[in-house]
Amino acid sequence: MERWLVISLMIVAYLGLTLWVGLRAGRGTSSTIDGFVAGDRNFGFLVMYFVTGATVFSAFAFLGGPGWAYSRGAAAFYILSYGVLGMAPWYVIGPKVARIGRSLGQVTQAQFLTGRFQSRGLSLLIALISIAALIPYITLQMRGAGIVIEAVTDGRIPLWMGAAVAYGIVLVYVLVSGVSAVGWTNTLQGVFMIAIAWTLGIYLPYSLYGGIGPMFEAIISQRPELLELPGLAASGEPWNWAGYSSAIVVSAVGLTMWPHLFMKAFTARDERIIRRTVVWFPTFQLFLVPVFLIGFAGVLFVESLERPDFILPHLILNVDLPVIVIGLFCAGALSASMSTGDALMHATASVAVEDGLGPFARLEEARQRLLIRVLIVAAGAIAYFFAVTEGVSLVVLLLTSYGIIAQLAPPVIAALFWRRATTAGVIAGLVAGGATALLFFFWPELRPIDLHEGVFGLLVHVPVLVLVSLLTPAQDEALVESYVNPPRTEP
Amino acid sequence: MNRTLIRRIAIGVFLLNALAVTWPLASFFKSAKPLVFGFPLSMVWPVAWIVVGLVMLLVLDHFENGNQAENRDEDQ
Q: Which CATH homologous superfamily contains domain A3-394?
């Protein structure tokens, strides 16, 4: 049998398995908004662990990670550095958010924030920020899936068809089972990703260089600048420490503020499970080690690839691997793409309905769930349009969105820990911080030093939040108390 | 040891972690040589901090959870 046919069959088998798991997951979940968006707040530890891990590690980690290691060397190590730093505060924040959400019946990030800072405008603002950040993210995942399938079938299944099939399946299980499907498929996909990354990450250096040590020795002797921090910039010139360090800071601040991750606090069965998820998250972070090994393995074997994101498929196809390994790689890459994509699509639609529309129009539950399902399809369709359209600079959009998403951190911290924060202060801070980040993104030459635009945003955001809050009247004591000191209610 | 102390230590460790992986502290560990277990020093340094973070979170969680009478560890 021909190679591409064997691989296609393996992909079909894998997608079938995912679909089966996703459809089964919905059984036993109530047909309410709580059930569809927050899984009846009944996720156990194992599912939460993989949801968190597999959602963070997207197609970007599986395709972009090796691409960064290959083209920018040590610069990729910033990705190693921010994960644990970003997740650790969640040990304190996550359970508190979950407790407030349970007592006030919240299922989204904007509901959480507007519960304390009551403003329909704020809800809409957060919804718009979230959707603007989520759509390019979904698009990247779809492109990732399409690229992999196109590459390994030697172009017989083009990008548009591969992306359509993979995401058609995601659509089916998310529509039927809601967030429960995201939970159980991510568990399956997380196991796949980790197993395949470690297998390839060790196999490739051994088969190409005779070991990990010899591989790095060879790279150091031929490209000594590559492995020295802070690595190289996209242009191939050495990167600077300001850019490297501020990328870590902004990514760490923004990590748990992504709506699709933040919202998962509302899905946990109890606070203990959120804490344990945070405690074990670093083990997921270590999965980046083999991912980078794959990228480094390509350094001396692949002559300057035009698009570094293709390093992994390229290497896989040109190193004469057994066909089963290639098939497994495909399943791993699709896992990475789909496990993030499903959570993103689900979050986008939930946010649009609950936060964008909810405060302005009273809808009964059944209508809301129908509308969320319609919008999941719409979000998928928009992202798919961008995914198959060349020429839209997605990486640019995604990089901007991190700077903007990080602006959601000060309001969350203020809601939980600062009694004197006011609605006016939070809105002013968010607008000022977001505008500053956008300004320095579009006009980088205005930056006084070469820091990530999100850092400038935060530097403006925090003082504005504090100052405007202090100039406006303090909030009602009971309201503040329900956030700063939420009642302990275990189910 | 009491919980307040452990919490302070945890905050201290993660602040140190943030300083260690960014400029200027990270610049002391920027070179590829020496190789540690075959990996370049510049890569081992952030990986080591992931392990430190894991250990710190395990210790913190042990003490946070220690004085709860029932240890609810049911998995799904």
A: Sodium/glucose cotransporter (1.20.1730.10)
Tell which of B27, B39, B55, B67 to mutate to test the A interface (max A CBs under 10 Å).
B39
* Contact with chain B for residue A238, Cβ under 8 A: no
* DSSP character at residue A473: P
Q: What is the Cα–Cα distance from A52 to A343, expressed in whole angstroms?
A: 10
d(CA A199, CA A212): 13
Q: What DSSP string runs through A276-297? A: HHHHHHHHHHTTHHHHHHHHHH
Which residue in chain B is spatially nearest to A241 when comparing CA positions? Answer: B23
Q: Return the SS3 of B16.
A: helix
pLDDT at A305 over 80: no
Q: Quick check: bond before A230 cis, omega within 30? A: yes
Chain A residues lying within 8 Å of B51, measured CB to CB:
282
Find the CB nearest B14 among A47, A88, A224. A88
How would you write the pLDDT of chain B (76 residues) with one tens digit per residue?
A: 678 898 899 999 999 999 999 888 888 888 888 888 989 999 999 999 999 999 999 999 998 886 554 444 433 3
Contact A46, A57 (CB under 8 A): no
Contacts of A94 in chain B (CB under 8 A): none
Task: Name A16's Cβ contacts closer than 8 Å, sequence gap at least 6.
Answer: none
Q: Residue B64: its chain A contacts at CB < 8 A? A: 275
Instruction: DSSP for A32-74, please give it.
Output: SHHHHHHGGG-B-HHHHHHHHHHHHS-HIIIIIHHHHHHHHGG
Give the residue extent of every domain in chain A.
Answer: 3-394
Q: Which of A45, A91, A280 sits opposite B75 (nearest CB)?
A: A45
What is the complex's ipTM, to 2 decimals?
Answer: 0.86
Interval A267-293: pLDDT, tens: 888 888 889 889 999 998 888 899 899
User: Any chain B CB within 8 A of the CB of A44?
Assistant: yes
Length of chain B (residues):
76
